[in-house]
Specification:
The protein is α/β, with parallel strands linked by helices and about 300 residues long. The chain is about 40% helix and about 15% strand. The strands form four sheets. It has a seven-stranded parallel sheet, with helices on both faces. The chain has a two-stranded parallel ribbon with strand order 7-10. A two-stranded parallel sheet has the order 8-13. Helix 4 links the parallel strand 4 and strand 5 (about 115-120). Helix 1 crosses helix 7. Bound molecules: NADP nicotinamide-adenine-dinucleotide phosphate (NAP).
């Protein structure tokens, strides 16, 4: 394997995967191409000599065809949490989670690129309660139908330095005297970013991962209330967490949809109606043992 196209490679998870692939002896010589909408935001990756970050619109089939030419594998990571309202999912979700995988599959087949690694989400099913999860399931289905050498990854929420999860709660705790929280009893089984990275990077060159779908979780389940409370306390700002009644939480999320970059949407609340926990406990592939949140989070939350 010499050339890898990483779509969505500039984000939180993608950047870590790219760094790991650039470091591993088996892939250190691979040239990685990372299309982005804003190259200037990927400065942290420009220092890697085998990584090429380029401004490109991956939704444009002609651009995607050019990007795909000569690649040996594709890692597909584009994901959004706000995709609007709609049935079975909002337009933003349709474009990023379903149409883009369809275009990736078509471009890969046309270019003869068989190996595709795709990051979906835990509990993505066609009858899931949210547009986010339904669209993620539809994206998986599109790729499964394409006859590629596919590996799917379905993480629960991912934690690690720079996450948009515990870090956000810790930041909010610095300014907020308390947390009025929607979905306080929602369940999660957070998985460490390096465990996800190791699974994706490890899968790339393993033929036994072709056709596999890996649910990825950490060793322990928590309620959202526990996680918010923990992040606030560990960052040095313990705060009371007040669980909001469902109707108030719903109204709060609806109101936040009018704020640019608002932290919550009604669809996010619907996602939390299904527990983001692994049915197989926390068994990671390739014999890797999942890392406890408490071993890592204090290091970056403090
Ligand atoms: N983080 C988690 O806790 C978590 C949990 C479960 C599943 N996942 C899944 O893991 C994947 C990576 O997540 P992440 O946390 O790394 O996300 P992230 O930090 O938000 O990065 C998203 C990436 O997708 C690209 N992107 C976003 N919207 C796009 C669009 N409309 N068109 C084209 N490119 C777009 C961004 O590229 P630009 O450079 O162009 O901005 C960026 O590279 C996603 O599929 C996500 O659903 C994440």
């Amino acid at each position: 394997m010499k050339n890898i196209l990483v779509i969505g490679g500039t984000g939180f998870l993608g950047s870590a995967i790219v760094r790991e692939l650039a470091r591993r002896p088996a892939t250190a010589g691979c040239l990685m191409t990372l299309p982005t909408r804003r190259r200037e935001r990927a400065k942290h990756l420009l220092v890697l000599p085998t990584v090429s970050v380029i401004d490109a619109d991956v939704h444009d089939p002609a651009t995607l065809a050019r990007l795909m030419a000569g690649q040996d594998a594709v890692i597909s990571l584009v994901g959004i949490l706000k995709g609007g309202e709609g049935e079975p999912y909002g337009q933003g979700f349709a474009r990023a989670h379903v149409e883009l995988p369809r275009k990736i599959a078509a471009a890969a087949r046309a270019a003869g690129v068989r190996r595709v690694l795709h990051v979906s989400a835990l509990k993505a099913t066609a009858d899931a309660p949210s547009g986010y999860l339904r669209s993620k399931a539809a994206g998986e289905a599109v790729l499964l139908d394409a006859g590629l050498d596919l590996t799917l990854f379905r993480p629960s929420v991912i934690f690690g330095a720079g996450d948009a999860f515990l870090t956000v709660f810790a930041d909010l705790a610095r300014i907020a005297p308390l947390f009025p929280l929607a979905g306080a009893d929602a369940r999660f089984q957070p998985v460490w970013i390096e465990d996800v990275v190791a699974t994706v990077a490890g899968s790339l060159l393993r033929s036994d991962s072709i056709g596999a779908a890996y649910d990825l979780c950490g060793p322990q389940q928590y309620s959202l209330r526990q996680l918010v409370s923990y992040a606030a306390a560990v960052s040095g700002n313990p705060r009371p967490v007040i669980g909001l009644p469902a109707a108030i939480g719903w109204l709060q999320a609806w109101a936040m949809e009018f704020i640019p970059n608002g932290p919550m949407t009604r669809d996010n609340i619907r996602s939390m109606r299904v527990a983001s926990v692994c049915d197989n406990g926390c068994a990671l592939p390739f014999g890797r043992v999942a890392t406890p949140l408490e071993m890592v989070a204090p290091g970056y939350l403090r």
